[in-house]
Write a structure and sequence with these properties.
alpha/beta; 7-stranded mixed sheet; 7-stranded antiparallel sheet; flat; disordered C terminus
């Protein structure tokens, strides 16, 4: 699909310039000086030649078929240049020019019109407002960047042209190779999904790297990224991590969720390795491009200094990896080769006077030990150290079975050896912590590849009952569902809910309380009062008729005083829930990725500590349990200081039922079950309170 863009034989530069420093000059100059093997056609209305290449006044004047057109003319002239390109059978167009949707509505309309024209004529469009692209394996620098990097196996997609130039400068300075680099600009047509899909099939690409500010289509991204991640690693640095949404969310879940949380969940589901910083992005890319994946968590640390070895060991354990001793027979064999003062525990300390041979002995021992899954080699420059000889010796000793990352710490004394390590395909880092972080990313990706198949449980539920309730609310535009309706929906999905109903008089409240059985809870029923307890709209443990009558009268008085404009439907009387651990379950809809499930402990854990976790629906049983385990308060669920463990399977089951509910009914925008009272194993867990908000945008699906 993208051959005409990435490997064209004929390129027209519309807007080629004779003036050095202008974009049209730099692009043409890059194509020529970097030895593009195909034909380049400069288009300039006044020139006859530029940089020694014959120039044409217009593309129609050239009159022959082209593969790719690079458009560098002012924005008002771009559409005509695209039409001329299509007339000459171009199958790909790069619009470098800015001044489109990033500027104003007029620019956005023109951009959309150009994109539609290209689509109708089967032409792929990159840009506008982009740097262009580079394909080192095709000797093509179709950009206005200053440098062409060496050939390599890392291919990069960037939404920022400026970041592309920074990456290129970094690669050239370190003599690091790239495969392809694409600046996607405004993404009028081609976006990150198109290039992830293409690069996943590209034999010249081993690692896909992306810098993204947003994602065009969340579901398509997840599908494509998951397929691509099964083939090769994808590393993405996502910027713009502030909370999503222009309006304040009304639910706990909605207020705690944000764009960054949604992207993080989507990346984990898709197997994407997330880089938190620009530095991480490059560190991870280097490791993935040079070394095999670890088979497990155990890391051997080889060092010629105790302090850096301890630093590395701390970093390993803090990252969730492990530092276990060598096998006894491995340690015994290595000890025979090292000085008596050396340590063959893990870290392996080869001492400050270690020569290349000692490092090789240690590397070979760790490499041969079946319990070692990865190796980190640390070198500090001391008077007797041979950094260059050590770098070469380590590389010569590797058999490719175990990933090896290096940290040659220092500056001038290790500068050349670090460069040598890179040329020898050993990732090197200035500190042990960065090496460990890259290794952790490799381990996480290896674990994702080994994940079990995702099996979504489908529960037998009463969808028709939910359909009727939602239809009634949608037709009357009552988008805030009261507790009675919300609990009726939960009951249809087989949640345990306390017996209860709405009443509108103190006499009815007493009668219902007697029917249910004391003690009871009383809650104000109003679509306009969201946080009932804050308004004095909740009374618990009402033990007799007099208490119910008094609570009703007092609650109505308070509501008239505190919320005089609120619509009051009455009060909701229900059976008191059995005691248990309070947790909160919820849903909010991300505009890109759809329904996001939330779990956290109730009370201070959600209100103050915000100890919650999110995942994208639908979820599996394993993913539901992982949500519980990823909270800091997970140990409380397991039981501490003599307290019994709560029924975590019941929580996971509830999360899966909510997942099914919001997947089957997309008009549910937000939802909280707060609290969900969880008992011990074997006891009933109950949805004590619930609220649902509808979007009002979607029709209720028919069963």
């Amino acid at each position: 699909m993208l051959d005409s863009l990435l490997t064209p034989k004929t390129i027209a530069v519309i807007g080629a310039s004779k003036t050095k420093g202008k974009v049209g000059y730099e692009i043409l100059d890059n194509l020529i000086k970097d030895k593009f093997a195909g034909t380049v056609i400069p288009i300039n209305p006044t020139a006859t030649e530029i940089l020694g290449v014959p120039c044409w006044h217009s593309l129609p004047e050239y009159g022959k078929p082209i593969d790719l057109s690079i458009v560098v003319v002012p924005a008002p002239a771009v559409f005509q240049a695209v039409k001329d390109s299509v007339a000459q059978q171009a199958k790909a167009v790069i619009i470098i020019t800015a001044g489109f949707k990033e500027v104003d509505e007029k620019g956005a309309a023109l951009e959309a019109e150009i994109a539609q024209y290209c689509k109708e004529h089967g032409v792929v469009l990159l840009g506008p407002n982009c740097l262009g692209l580079i394909n080192t394996h095709h000797s093509m620098n179709a950009s206005f960047a200053s440098h062409m990097p060496p050939k390599g196996s890392i291919s990069i997609i960037s939404q920022s042209g400026a970041l592309c130039t920074a990456i290129l400068d970094w690669c050239v300075q370190r003599n690091m190779g790239l495969g392809k680099l694409v600046s996607i600009g405004n993404k009028a047509d081609l976006n990150e999904v198109d290039f992830i899909r293409d690069f996943s099939r590209d034999p010249d690409t081993r690692v896909i790297v992306g810098y993204l500010e947003n994602i065009t289509d969340g579901n398509e991204f997840m599908t494509t990224a998951k397929q691509a991640s099964a083939i090769k690693p994808i590393v993405i640095f996502k910027s713009g991590v502030t909370q999503a949404g222009g309006k304040a969310a009304s639910s706990h879940t909605g207020s705690l969720a944000g764009a960054d949380i949604a992207y993080g969940a989507a990346f984990r589901r898709s197997g994407v390795i997330r880089a938190e910083t620009f530095e991480n992005m490059l560190d991870y890319a280097i490791a993935f491009s040079m070394q095999p994946l670890p088979k497990g968590d155990n890391v051997a640390i080889i060092t010629n200094a105790g302090g850096p070895g301890i630093m590395a060991a701390d970093a390993v354990e803090l990252s969730g990896l492990a530092v276990h001793p060598l096998q006894p027979e491995t340690a015994a064999a290595l000890m025979k080769k090292l000085p008596a003062a050396a340590s063959v525990n893990n870290p392996i300390d080869v001492l400050g006077d270690a020569d290349p041979t000692r490092y090789v002995d240690a590397v070979k021992a760790a490499q041969s030990d079946p319990t070692i899954d990865a190796i980190i080699v640390i070198l500090t420059p001391q008077a007797m150290t041979d950094p260059m000889g050590t770098a070469q010796a380590i590389a010569d000793s590797l058999d490719g079975s175990t990933p090896v990352l290096a940290s040659f710490m220092g500056g001038l004394d290790v500068h050349e050896s670090r460069a040598l390590l890179r040329t020898l395909n050993i990732p090197e880092y200035p500190s042990p912590e960065r090496a460990v972080d890259s290794l952790r990313a490799m381990r996480d990706y290896a674990a994702w590849l080994k994940r079990p198949p995702r099996i979504i449980t489908r529960f037998p539920v009463n969808r028709r009952r939910v359909e009727r309730i939602l239809s009634r609310h949608t037709k009357t535009r009552q988008l805030q569902l009261g507790e009675a309706s919300a609990k009726a929906i939960l009951k249809a999905y087989d949640f345990n809910v306390p017996d209860g109903d709405i009443v509108s008089s103190s006499a009815d409240a007493v009668a219902l309380a007697r029917q249910i059985g004391f003690p009871v809870a009383m809650k104000i029923a109003s679509p306009d009062i969201i946080h009932k307890s804050d308004m004095g709209g909740v009374k618990l443990n009402l033990n007799n008729a007099s208490a119910v009558e008094d609570a009703y009268d007092l609650m109505m008085l308070r509501m008239r005083q505190r919320a005089p404009g609120a619509r009051i439907e009455g009060v909701y009387i229900e059976q008191m829930c059995p005691k248990g651990r309070e947790v909160i379950l919820g849903v909010t809809r991300d505009p890109q990725f759809g329904p996001m499930l939330m779990f956290g402990l109730g009370g201070i854990f959600v209100e103050v500590m915000k100890d919650v976790t999110f995942n994208i629906a639908p979820i599996t049983q394993d993913e539901a349990m992982q949500m519980l385990q990823s909270t800091k308060s997970y140990e409380l669920l397991k039981g501490v200081r003599g307290q019994a463990q709560v029924d975590m399977v019941a929580i996971a089951d509830a999360l899966q039922r909510i997942s099914q509910l919001v997947t089957e009914f997309p008009q549910i925008a937000e939802m909280d079950i707060n609290p969900f009272m969880v008992g011990r194993v074997g006891e009933i867990s109950v949805a004590a309170d619930a609220r649902i908000t509808l979007s009002g945008d979607d029709e209720v699906p028919h069963v």
